[in-house]
Design goal:
18 helices, single chain, six-stranded mixed beta sheet, Arc Repressor Mutant, subunit A, 3 domains, three-stranded antiparallel beta sheet, about 10% strand
Length: about 400
Amino acid sequence: MDSLINAAGRALAAGEPLAALNLIALREDPPALALRGIAMAQLGELARAKALLQRAVKAFGANEPLFRARCVVAEAEVALAARDLGWPVKALEAARQILQEHGDRPNAFHARYLQIRRLLLIGELDQAETLLVELDPAALPAALRAAHELLTAGIALRRVQARKARAALQQAQHAAQLAGIRALTAEVEHAQRLLDVPCARLLCGGQWQPITLPQVETLFASPTLVVDACRYSVRGAGMTVTLATRPVLLILARSLAEAWPGDVSREALVARAFGLKLDDQSQRARLRVEIGRLRSVLQGLAGISATARGFTLVAADVAVLALPVEDRHAALLALLADGEAWSSSALALVLGCSQRQVQRELQVLAANDKVQAFGMGRTRRWMTPPVPGFATILLLPVSLGNG
Protein backbone atom coordinates (compact mmCIF):
# COMPACT_ATOMS: atom_id res chain seq x y z
CA MET A 1 0.00 0.00 0.00
CA ASP A 2 1.15 3.58 -0.68
CA SER A 3 1.92 6.21 1.90
CA LEU A 4 -1.48 7.98 1.58
CA ILE A 5 -3.35 4.75 2.30
CA ASN A 6 -1.16 4.05 5.31
CA ALA A 7 -1.62 7.59 6.62
CA ALA A 8 -5.41 7.39 6.14
CA GLY A 9 -5.49 4.08 7.99
CA ARG A 10 -3.60 5.59 10.92
CA ALA A 11 -6.00 8.54 11.02
CA LEU A 12 -9.01 6.22 11.13
CA ALA A 13 -7.41 4.14 13.90
CA ALA A 14 -7.04 7.37 15.89
CA GLY A 15 -10.71 8.26 15.32
CA GLU A 16 -10.03 11.09 12.84
CA PRO A 17 -12.19 10.37 9.77
CA LEU A 18 -11.97 13.87 8.28
CA ALA A 19 -8.18 13.69 8.25
CA ALA A 20 -8.41 10.34 6.47
CA LEU A 21 -10.84 11.67 3.86
CA ASN A 22 -8.57 14.61 3.13
CA LEU A 23 -6.02 12.05 1.94
CA ILE A 24 -8.18 9.64 -0.09
CA ALA A 25 -11.56 11.26 -0.77
CA LEU A 26 -11.14 11.28 -4.56
CA ARG A 27 -9.58 7.84 -4.98
CA GLU A 28 -11.48 4.85 -6.38
CA ASP A 29 -8.99 2.01 -5.87
CA PRO A 30 -10.14 -0.84 -3.57
CA PRO A 31 -8.09 0.10 -0.46
CA ALA A 32 -9.27 3.71 -0.71
CA LEU A 33 -12.90 2.64 -1.14
CA ALA A 34 -12.64 0.53 2.02
CA LEU A 35 -11.05 3.33 4.04
CA ARG A 36 -13.58 5.85 2.73
CA GLY A 37 -16.36 3.51 3.84
CA ILE A 38 -14.91 3.27 7.34
CA ALA A 39 -14.51 7.06 7.49
CA MET A 40 -18.14 7.61 6.47
CA ALA A 41 -19.22 5.13 9.14
CA GLN A 42 -17.28 7.05 11.79
CA LEU A 43 -19.06 10.22 10.62
CA GLY A 44 -22.46 8.54 10.97
CA GLU A 45 -23.17 8.29 7.21
CA LEU A 46 -24.03 4.60 7.46
CA ALA A 47 -25.85 4.14 4.14
CA ARG A 48 -22.94 5.71 2.24
CA ALA A 49 -20.46 3.65 4.26
CA LYS A 50 -22.27 0.42 3.41
CA ALA A 51 -22.26 1.21 -0.31
CA LEU A 52 -18.54 2.04 -0.34
CA LEU A 53 -17.61 -1.12 1.55
CA GLN A 54 -19.67 -3.29 -0.80
CA ARG A 55 -17.86 -1.72 -3.76
CA ALA A 56 -14.54 -2.42 -2.06
CA VAL A 57 -15.39 -6.10 -1.54
CA LYS A 58 -16.21 -6.51 -5.24
CA ALA A 59 -13.13 -4.56 -6.32
CA PHE A 60 -10.70 -6.63 -4.27
CA GLY A 61 -11.82 -9.87 -5.89
CA ALA A 62 -11.44 -13.49 -4.82
CA ASN A 63 -7.64 -13.40 -5.09
CA GLU A 64 -7.32 -11.04 -2.14
CA PRO A 65 -9.15 -12.85 0.70
CA LEU A 66 -7.47 -10.92 3.50
CA PHE A 67 -8.61 -7.51 2.25
CA ARG A 68 -12.09 -8.85 1.46
CA ALA A 69 -12.32 -10.25 4.98
CA ARG A 70 -11.43 -6.87 6.47
CA CYS A 71 -14.19 -5.26 4.41
CA VAL A 72 -16.71 -7.86 5.56
CA VAL A 73 -15.83 -7.02 9.18
CA ALA A 74 -16.27 -3.32 8.45
CA GLU A 75 -19.65 -4.03 6.79
CA ALA A 76 -20.76 -5.93 9.89
CA GLU A 77 -19.76 -3.00 12.09
CA VAL A 78 -21.80 -0.61 9.95
CA ALA A 79 -24.78 -2.97 10.13
CA LEU A 80 -24.45 -3.16 13.90
CA ALA A 81 -24.31 0.63 14.18
CA ALA A 82 -27.45 0.84 12.02
CA ARG A 83 -29.10 -1.78 14.26
CA ASP A 84 -29.51 -4.09 11.27
CA LEU A 85 -29.12 -7.31 13.24
CA GLY A 86 -30.12 -9.64 10.42
CA TRP A 87 -26.74 -9.46 8.66
CA PRO A 88 -25.11 -12.82 7.79
CA VAL A 89 -23.42 -14.06 10.93
CA LYS A 90 -21.75 -16.93 9.02
CA ALA A 91 -20.05 -14.49 6.66
CA LEU A 92 -18.55 -12.61 9.60
CA GLU A 93 -17.31 -15.82 11.19
CA ALA A 94 -15.74 -16.91 7.88
CA ALA A 95 -14.02 -13.52 7.63
CA ARG A 96 -12.78 -13.84 11.21
CA GLN A 97 -11.22 -17.22 10.47
CA ILE A 98 -9.46 -15.85 7.38
CA LEU A 99 -8.05 -12.99 9.42
CA GLN A 100 -6.88 -15.42 12.10
CA GLU A 101 -5.20 -17.66 9.52
CA HIS A 102 -3.35 -14.69 8.00
CA GLY A 103 -2.07 -13.52 11.39
CA ASP A 104 -4.22 -10.38 11.49
CA ARG A 105 -4.99 -10.77 15.20
CA PRO A 106 -6.38 -7.25 15.87
CA ASN A 107 -8.96 -7.47 13.08
CA ALA A 108 -9.83 -11.06 14.02
CA PHE A 109 -10.47 -9.84 17.55
CA HIS A 110 -12.59 -7.01 16.19
CA ALA A 111 -14.72 -9.50 14.26
CA ARG A 112 -15.26 -11.48 17.44
CA TYR A 113 -16.04 -8.24 19.26
CA LEU A 114 -18.84 -7.53 16.77
CA GLN A 115 -20.23 -11.05 17.18
CA ILE A 116 -20.34 -10.61 20.95
CA ARG A 117 -21.93 -7.16 20.71
CA ARG A 118 -24.72 -8.58 18.55
CA LEU A 119 -25.33 -11.39 21.05
CA LEU A 120 -25.41 -8.84 23.85
CA LEU A 121 -27.99 -6.74 22.00
CA ILE A 122 -30.33 -9.69 21.49
CA GLY A 123 -29.98 -10.84 25.12
CA GLU A 124 -27.94 -14.01 24.53
CA LEU A 125 -25.66 -13.41 27.52
CA ASP A 126 -24.42 -16.98 27.94
CA GLN A 127 -23.22 -17.21 24.34
CA ALA A 128 -21.66 -13.75 24.55
CA GLU A 129 -19.76 -14.64 27.71
CA THR A 130 -18.56 -17.95 26.27
CA LEU A 131 -17.02 -16.17 23.27
CA LEU A 132 -15.57 -13.40 25.43
CA VAL A 133 -13.66 -15.69 27.81
CA GLU A 134 -11.89 -17.24 24.82
CA LEU A 135 -10.19 -13.92 24.08
CA ASP A 136 -6.92 -12.72 25.61
CA PRO A 137 -6.67 -8.94 25.18
CA ALA A 138 -3.27 -8.58 26.88
CA ALA A 139 -1.27 -8.24 23.64
CA LEU A 140 -3.82 -6.08 21.83
CA PRO A 141 -3.72 -2.32 21.18
CA ALA A 142 -5.28 -0.07 23.83
CA ALA A 143 -8.45 0.57 21.80
CA LEU A 144 -9.22 -3.15 21.55
CA ARG A 145 -8.46 -3.68 25.24
CA ALA A 146 -11.01 -0.97 25.99
CA ALA A 147 -13.52 -2.76 23.75
CA HIS A 148 -12.90 -6.01 25.64
CA GLU A 149 -13.54 -4.35 28.99
CA LEU A 150 -16.67 -2.65 27.64
CA LEU A 151 -18.03 -6.06 26.63
CA THR A 152 -17.20 -7.47 30.07
CA ALA A 153 -19.01 -4.54 31.66
CA GLY A 154 -21.97 -4.87 29.31
CA ILE A 155 -22.54 -8.49 30.24
CA ALA A 156 -22.10 -7.69 33.94
CA LEU A 157 -24.60 -4.83 33.74
CA ARG A 158 -27.21 -7.08 32.16
CA ARG A 159 -26.57 -9.70 34.85
CA VAL A 160 -26.95 -7.06 37.60
CA GLN A 161 -23.31 -7.44 38.66
CA ALA A 162 -22.58 -3.79 39.37
CA ARG A 163 -19.24 -4.23 41.16
CA LYS A 164 -17.83 -6.33 38.34
CA ALA A 165 -19.12 -3.83 35.78
CA ARG A 166 -17.55 -0.87 37.61
CA ALA A 167 -14.16 -2.60 37.78
CA ALA A 168 -14.28 -3.43 34.07
CA LEU A 169 -15.25 0.13 33.19
CA GLN A 170 -12.33 1.50 35.19
CA GLN A 171 -10.02 -0.70 33.12
CA ALA A 172 -11.81 0.42 29.95
CA GLN A 173 -11.37 4.07 30.89
CA HIS A 174 -7.64 3.59 31.39
CA ALA A 175 -7.28 1.80 28.03
CA ALA A 176 -9.40 4.41 26.22
CA GLN A 177 -7.23 7.22 27.60
CA LEU A 178 -4.12 5.40 26.33
CA ALA A 179 -5.75 5.00 22.92
CA GLY A 180 -6.58 8.71 22.78
CA ILE A 181 -9.84 8.16 20.86
CA ARG A 182 -12.48 10.64 22.00
CA ALA A 183 -15.46 8.57 20.81
CA LEU A 184 -14.23 5.55 22.74
CA THR A 185 -13.71 7.61 25.90
CA ALA A 186 -17.24 9.01 25.56
CA GLU A 187 -18.66 5.48 25.23
CA VAL A 188 -16.94 4.42 28.45
CA GLU A 189 -18.16 7.51 30.30
CA HIS A 190 -21.73 6.85 29.15
CA ALA A 191 -21.56 3.28 30.46
CA GLN A 192 -20.18 4.52 33.80
CA ARG A 193 -23.12 6.89 34.20
CA LEU A 194 -25.53 3.95 34.00
CA LEU A 195 -24.27 2.79 37.40
CA ASP A 196 -25.16 6.05 39.10
CA VAL A 197 -28.71 6.74 37.88
CA PRO A 198 -31.91 4.91 38.91
CA CYS A 199 -32.73 1.84 36.86
CA ALA A 200 -35.93 0.73 38.62
CA ARG A 201 -38.37 1.48 41.44
CA LEU A 202 -38.44 -0.37 44.74
CA LEU A 203 -41.46 -0.88 46.99
CA CYS A 204 -40.25 -1.52 50.50
CA GLY A 205 -42.08 -0.65 53.71
CA GLY A 206 -45.04 0.64 51.75
CA GLN A 207 -43.05 3.33 49.91
CA TRP A 208 -41.89 3.47 46.29
CA GLN A 209 -38.38 4.82 45.76
CA PRO A 210 -35.89 4.93 42.86
CA ILE A 211 -33.04 2.43 43.03
CA THR A 212 -29.69 2.20 41.21
CA LEU A 213 -28.09 -0.94 39.80
CA PRO A 214 -25.55 -1.29 42.67
CA GLN A 215 -28.49 -1.10 45.10
CA VAL A 216 -30.33 -3.78 43.11
CA GLU A 217 -27.26 -6.02 43.34
CA THR A 218 -27.15 -5.51 47.12
CA LEU A 219 -30.89 -6.23 47.34
CA PHE A 220 -30.53 -9.51 45.41
CA ALA A 221 -27.73 -10.60 47.76
CA SER A 222 -29.87 -9.92 50.88
CA PRO A 223 -32.32 -12.37 52.51
CA THR A 224 -35.26 -10.20 51.38
CA LEU A 225 -37.89 -11.89 49.24
CA VAL A 226 -37.94 -9.86 46.01
CA VAL A 227 -40.74 -10.01 43.48
CA ASP A 228 -38.86 -8.81 40.42
CA ALA A 229 -41.36 -7.37 37.94
CA CYS A 230 -38.47 -6.25 35.70
CA ARG A 231 -37.15 -9.77 35.04
CA TYR A 232 -40.41 -11.62 35.82
CA SER A 233 -39.08 -13.67 38.73
CA VAL A 234 -39.13 -14.11 42.50
CA ARG A 235 -35.79 -14.14 44.34
CA GLY A 236 -34.73 -14.97 47.86
CA ALA A 237 -32.66 -17.34 50.00
CA GLY A 238 -30.17 -17.74 47.15
CA MET A 239 -32.89 -19.04 44.84
CA THR A 240 -34.60 -17.59 41.77
CA VAL A 241 -37.96 -18.75 40.43
CA THR A 242 -38.70 -17.58 36.88
CA LEU A 243 -42.31 -16.65 36.13
CA ALA A 244 -41.75 -15.20 32.64
CA THR A 245 -44.01 -17.82 31.07
CA ARG A 246 -46.58 -17.74 33.88
CA PRO A 247 -47.99 -14.19 33.90
CA VAL A 248 -50.96 -14.98 36.16
CA LEU A 249 -48.65 -16.28 38.91
CA LEU A 250 -46.44 -13.20 38.54
CA ILE A 251 -49.46 -10.89 38.94
CA LEU A 252 -50.63 -12.78 42.02
CA ALA A 253 -47.13 -12.75 43.54
CA ARG A 254 -46.75 -9.03 42.95
CA SER A 255 -50.21 -8.27 44.36
CA LEU A 256 -49.47 -10.20 47.54
CA ALA A 257 -45.99 -8.64 47.85
CA GLU A 258 -47.33 -5.10 47.45
CA ALA A 259 -49.84 -5.67 50.25
CA TRP A 260 -47.38 -7.44 52.60
CA PRO A 261 -47.59 -7.81 55.58
CA GLY A 262 -51.31 -7.34 55.00
CA ASP A 263 -53.59 -9.49 52.89
CA VAL A 264 -55.35 -9.03 49.54
CA SER A 265 -59.05 -9.71 49.06
CA ARG A 266 -60.21 -12.43 46.71
CA GLU A 267 -62.13 -9.83 44.71
CA ALA A 268 -58.97 -7.76 44.15
CA LEU A 269 -56.90 -10.79 43.16
CA VAL A 270 -59.50 -12.02 40.65
CA ALA A 271 -59.85 -8.54 39.15
CA ARG A 272 -56.10 -8.03 38.77
CA ALA A 273 -55.15 -11.54 37.63
CA PHE A 274 -58.16 -12.40 35.46
CA GLY A 275 -59.75 -9.03 34.70
CA LEU A 276 -63.09 -10.23 36.06
CA LYS A 277 -65.46 -9.62 38.95
CA LEU A 278 -65.73 -12.25 41.66
CA ASP A 279 -69.38 -13.18 41.16
CA ASP A 280 -69.54 -16.99 41.00
CA GLN A 281 -67.95 -20.11 42.45
CA SER A 282 -66.01 -20.95 39.28
CA GLN A 283 -63.87 -17.86 39.69
CA ARG A 284 -63.25 -18.69 43.34
CA ALA A 285 -62.17 -22.17 42.28
CA ARG A 286 -59.90 -20.78 39.57
CA LEU A 287 -58.28 -18.45 42.08
CA ARG A 288 -57.71 -21.31 44.52
CA VAL A 289 -56.04 -23.34 41.74
CA GLU A 290 -53.68 -20.48 40.78
CA ILE A 291 -52.85 -19.71 44.41
CA GLY A 292 -52.04 -23.39 44.86
CA ARG A 293 -49.72 -23.28 41.88
CA LEU A 294 -48.03 -20.14 43.21
CA ARG A 295 -47.66 -21.71 46.65
CA SER A 296 -45.97 -24.70 44.99
CA VAL A 297 -43.45 -22.69 42.93
CA LEU A 298 -42.57 -20.49 45.92
CA GLN A 299 -41.88 -23.48 48.17
CA GLY A 300 -38.65 -22.80 50.03
CA LEU A 301 -38.94 -19.06 49.40
CA ALA A 302 -42.22 -18.02 51.03
CA GLY A 303 -45.60 -19.28 52.11
CA ILE A 304 -49.14 -18.17 51.28
CA SER A 305 -51.86 -18.26 53.92
CA ALA A 306 -55.61 -17.86 53.52
CA THR A 307 -57.34 -15.13 55.53
CA ALA A 308 -60.96 -14.32 56.13
CA ARG A 309 -61.13 -12.08 53.06
CA GLY A 310 -58.32 -13.37 50.85
CA PHE A 311 -54.64 -14.38 51.01
CA THR A 312 -51.39 -13.09 52.49
CA LEU A 313 -47.71 -13.70 51.77
CA VAL A 314 -45.72 -15.27 54.61
CA ALA A 315 -42.09 -14.10 54.65
CA ALA A 316 -39.70 -12.27 56.97
CA ASP A 317 -39.11 -9.36 54.59
CA VAL A 318 -40.62 -8.56 51.19
CA ALA A 319 -39.84 -6.03 48.44
CA VAL A 320 -41.15 -5.40 44.93
CA LEU A 321 -38.86 -4.31 42.11
CA ALA A 322 -40.71 -2.59 39.25
CA LEU A 323 -39.91 -0.85 36.00
CA PRO A 324 -39.19 2.88 36.12
CA VAL A 325 -42.04 3.31 33.64
CA GLU A 326 -45.02 0.95 33.87
CA ASP A 327 -45.92 0.66 30.19
CA ARG A 328 -46.77 -2.28 27.96
CA HIS A 329 -44.23 -0.88 25.49
CA ALA A 330 -41.47 -0.73 28.13
CA ALA A 331 -39.10 -3.25 26.52
CA LEU A 332 -39.47 -1.62 23.11
CA LEU A 333 -38.80 1.84 24.54
CA ALA A 334 -35.80 0.50 26.45
CA LEU A 335 -34.17 -0.70 23.23
CA LEU A 336 -34.85 2.58 21.46
CA ALA A 337 -33.53 4.57 24.43
CA ASP A 338 -29.92 3.76 23.53
CA GLY A 339 -30.06 6.71 21.15
CA GLU A 340 -29.45 4.57 18.04
CA ALA A 341 -31.74 4.26 15.01
CA TRP A 342 -33.42 0.84 14.92
CA SER A 343 -35.22 -0.99 12.14
CA SER A 344 -38.48 -2.73 13.00
CA SER A 345 -36.97 -6.06 11.89
CA ALA A 346 -34.08 -5.69 14.38
CA LEU A 347 -36.49 -4.78 17.18
CA ALA A 348 -38.60 -7.85 16.37
CA LEU A 349 -35.50 -10.08 16.44
CA VAL A 350 -34.46 -8.82 19.88
CA LEU A 351 -37.98 -8.94 21.37
CA GLY A 352 -38.75 -12.38 19.92
CA CYS A 353 -42.00 -11.33 18.23
CA SER A 354 -43.25 -10.64 14.71
CA GLN A 355 -42.13 -7.59 12.76
CA ARG A 356 -45.76 -6.68 12.11
CA GLN A 357 -46.50 -6.61 15.86
CA VAL A 358 -43.52 -4.30 16.44
CA GLN A 359 -44.66 -2.04 13.59
CA ARG A 360 -48.12 -1.73 15.15
CA GLU A 361 -46.63 -0.82 18.54
CA LEU A 362 -44.31 1.73 16.92
CA GLN A 363 -47.25 3.37 15.19
CA VAL A 364 -49.04 3.70 18.54
CA LEU A 365 -45.93 5.20 20.16
CA ALA A 366 -45.44 7.56 17.22
CA ALA A 367 -49.03 8.76 17.50
CA ASN A 368 -48.28 9.66 21.13
CA ASP A 369 -45.01 11.43 20.18
CA LYS A 370 -42.89 8.90 22.07
CA VAL A 371 -40.88 7.77 19.03
CA GLN A 372 -39.89 9.26 15.70
CA ALA A 373 -39.34 7.63 12.32
CA PHE A 374 -37.25 8.65 9.33
CA GLY A 375 -36.61 7.03 5.98
CA MET A 376 -38.91 4.89 3.86
CA GLY A 377 -39.33 1.18 3.22
CA ARG A 378 -36.33 -0.92 4.22
CA THR A 379 -34.37 2.17 5.22
CA ARG A 380 -37.02 3.27 7.74
CA ARG A 381 -35.54 3.67 11.22
CA TRP A 382 -37.00 4.52 14.64
CA MET A 383 -35.55 6.53 17.52
CA THR A 384 -36.59 7.98 20.86
CA PRO A 385 -34.86 10.06 23.55
CA PRO A 386 -33.65 8.17 26.67
CA VAL A 387 -36.05 7.85 29.60
CA PRO A 388 -35.27 11.03 31.61
CA GLY A 389 -33.28 10.29 34.75
CA PHE A 390 -33.36 6.52 34.34
CA ALA A 391 -31.05 3.82 33.04
CA THR A 392 -32.95 1.16 31.11
CA ILE A 393 -30.77 -1.85 31.94
CA LEU A 394 -33.46 -3.83 33.73
CA LEU A 395 -36.01 -3.23 30.96
CA LEU A 396 -33.86 -4.88 28.28
CA PRO A 397 -34.90 -8.35 27.09
CA VAL A 398 -32.84 -11.28 28.39
CA SER A 399 -33.13 -14.87 27.20
CA LEU A 400 -34.87 -17.15 29.69
CA GLY A 401 -32.35 -18.66 32.07
CA ASN A 402 -30.03 -15.64 32.01
CA GLY A 403 -29.89 -13.55 35.17
